[in-house]
Amino acid sequence: MRRVSMIKAALTVFSLLLISPLAMADEINQANTAWILTATALVLFMTIPGLSLFYAGLVRVKNVLSVLMQCFAITCVVSIIWLIAGYSLAFSDGNMFIGGLSNFMMSGIQEGTMNGDIPDSVFAMFQLTFAIITPALVVGGFAERMKFSSMLLFSAIWLVIVYIPVTHWVWGGGWLGEMGLLDFAGGTVVHITAGVAAITTAMVMGPRRGFPTTPMTPHNMTMTITGAGMLWVGWFGFNAGSALAANGDAGMAMLVTHMSAAAGAFTWMCIEWSKFGKPSALGAVTGMVAGLGTITPASGYVGPAGALVIGISAGFVCFHMTMFLKQKLGIDDSLDVFPVHGVGGALGTILAGVFASSSLGIFSGQGDGQPMSEQVVTQLIGVGSVGVYTAVLTYVLLKVIDALVGLRVSEEEETEGLDINQHNERGYDL
Questions:
Q1: pLDDT band at 9, cuts 50/70/90?
Q2: What one-character DSSP code corresponds to residue 187?
Q3: pLDDT band at residue 368, thresholds of 50, 70 and 90?
């Protein structure tokens, strides 16, 4: 009997050893799950209240509530679309250009279903926060002049025809991902789409009344700096969370994100100091956002030295592009979405292909081993294709909405301010 018991025990142990790898494949990693839950909250925190306050402080006092309301409403509309079909079209199996509807209404996502070693529900919610902030960023291109109803219609349709397909191209098994594009956290998916959409909208709608002769200075820089601080902290979830694990990749992404933000802010501040005699708070926070947006696509592939170069480049390039668009071309991208996010996202996507190389000594990153020249070509294809696709689809959508319901408030309403005529409320009642 004792020998039989020993044989049974040995067989039991042997069976457990055989099936344990299969069991582990479906087992939740609590550390990774806890980190992505935290990162999800941080990214949502970037939109409300971070981006909302950042943008609201930059507009005039008569439009502060309208910007807050736009970011809040976009959060609601995008969340509903993501539930119905957005997540499925972005991440379900489909073709090289768009996903399928196998997860329509998030069917198949239950408490026990997994995406890697984290729950499906956590992954879907994490990706939702990216889908929320992208059309919210576009608000800065048409701030102080678009109808609220037109804004809702534009944001909803734009999400479906621009953001979701590009997301599938890059992260959902589409053609850019298969080509080997390096976009760790959204240089193409978020920043190029938002920046190109913003400048396209600004050009189609035309400048605000009085631009550029009438001063349109930020009404509350305290609010803007508060929002900027929230963006800086929230961006750790944006970039480090994109590792989808609590590991060394997440730690390095957080480190390089911080360094690029600091370098971008300090560079922009120094340029202003040299050019205009005084550094401005507005310049410092704008440079910070430029540094953050530019490191985003590269954050999982570069090291701290590369991040320093990327941050300095972001501050320099984005500053001069902002001056060029407003002073030379006269384009009223109200809150500088294209020169900061669009140009920064494109610059960072290209530089990801450079600094991911392992042959740059202290500036080397951790790419996939593709030669630098080939990787940079792939990055350029990604930047160009996403930029052109976004510009064309955004332009057509704007023209259709303008023909159907009109895009812009009347001159009288614009003079009065959107807070009163669009919402019958004031941002301040002093």
A1: very low
A2: I
A3: low
Q: Exposed, middle or buried by CB within 10 Å (0-12, 13-18, 19+), for 326?
A: middle
CA distance 166 to 176: 9
State the pLDDT at residue 366: 78
- Higher-pLDDT residue of 127 and 12 is 127
**How far from chain centre, in Å, is Cα 61?**
27
Which amino acid appears at position 113 of this protein? T
Give the CA distances from residue 220 to residues 144, 223, 226, in Å, rounded to whole numbers and listed in that order.
15, 6, 10
Percent of the chain at pLDDT > 70 equals: 93
DSSP string, 285-334: HHHHHHHHHHHGGGTTT--HHHHHHHHHHHHHHHHHHHHIIIIIS----T
Q: Rounded CA gap, 292 and 218, in Å?
A: 22
Tokens 């990801």, located at residue: 352
Residue 86: strand, helix, or coil: helix
Rounded-to-integer distance, Cα 154 and Cα 197, Å: 11
Residues 6+ apart with CB under 8 A from 92: 99, 100, 101, 102, 103, 172
Tokens of 80: 């509903």
Give the separation between CA 376 and CA 181, rounded to whole angstroms. Answer: 9
pLDDT in tens, 78-99: 999 999 999 999 999 999 999 9
Percentage of the chain lying above the pLDDT 90 cut = 87
The backbone region for 2, taken as left when phi is positive above 0, alpha when psi lies in -120 to 50, beta otherwise, is alpha
Cβ 159 vs Cβ 86: under 8 Å: yes
- 90 within 8 A of 172, measured Cβ to Cβ: yes
Q: Per the confidence metrics, is the pTM higher than 0.85?
A: yes
Q: How far is CA 8 from the centre of its chain?
A: 56
Phi, psi of 113 (to 5 degrees): -80, 145
Positive or negative torsion for Cα 119, 121, 122, 128: positive
Whether the upstream peptide bond of residue 49 has omega within 30° of 0, thus cis, is: yes
List Cα–Cα distances, 270 to 182, 309, 341, in angstroms.
Answer: 31, 15, 20
Q: Residue 327: count other Cβ atoms within 10 Å of its Cβ.
A: 9
Q: How far apart are CA 206 and CA 117, in angstroms?
A: 48
Question: Apex CA 268: angle with CA 263 and CA 270, to 5°?
Answer: 95
